[in-house]
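sorry to bug you again but im stuck and you know this stuff better than me. theres a chain ive been looking at and ive put its sequence and its fold in token form underneath. id like you to explain what the token line says about the fold, in plain words if possible. anything you notice is useful, everything is just below.
___
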Amino acid sequence: METRIEEIARLLIDKLLAVRREENVMIIVDEDSEMRMARSLFNKSKSVGGNPIITIMPSNWHSHTTLPKPIQKSLEATDVVIGMTRRTAAPSYDPIVAKLLREKRIRYMSMVLRPLDNYINGAALADYDEVYKMAEKLADKMHGSRIKVVTSLGTNIEASIEGSKVIIEAGFATKPGESAAFSDGEVSYTPIEGTANGVVVVDGPIAYIGKPEKPVTLKVKEGRVIGVEGGREAEILRRMIEETVNLDNFAEFGIGVNRAARRNGYWQEEKKAWGNLHIALGDNIYYGGKVKCDKHMDLVIYNSTVTVDDRVILKEGKLLI
């Protein structure tokens, strides 16, 4: 296992992030993070001449989208940011991180909310040159003015995507302003706020909840979830939406392009899998939107058919690229 950890650290630092001499590298962890991986990333960054630091935040941090202020301030002096927190997604969705990315002052690698297995197996072992190539092909087809998603279970939702930025997350973040994740492999964007209407039936894993025993049905009107139906997981999600301001916002459509990703019930891996669609609720600042929320919550949907304008780009879970 230690050898695999070192191999993955080398892949990340040498190739996917291309850390250079004298660059300042910040690795953000919490008390429950996989420290063997964090230390390996630290050591590899140091070995190539970088200036790495590991900053530790509390595991019970209250927000999934905003970092503690001392870390936010430190970002100003950083070139490369690696988010490795286990209990919060705050490094990935923090507004200061998003601002610095827009200004092309940092590059970012999201490794948040993941166990060690996700770093060293399955999707992590993909050919990332191939993953990126497939992501570029898919991104070309995702541009348009309107998206529609249907499934045999009853999903039928449409939204405007006119002017939405198509975001490639496929492992590589080698230039200022670029961001990626690890493991990785998706293309995504936020719908125009207030335009999503229809029904979504979720049969794959849900962030922070797990894979539902029975599908969860979301009713969406003018970009907001107005109803949640299903079993135990639906009740948990309904309560979360009631208790979290703006978690009812329909925030994202994303499609996976990683052939090595497993269908293992874990949302961070399954949302990257070849042909899997995911939606998200809550915060959309990272995607160029204007809705701030303390959570960004992904929900995976199997065997979707996706149409952008008059082009079918995904047919019953099979990518047409």
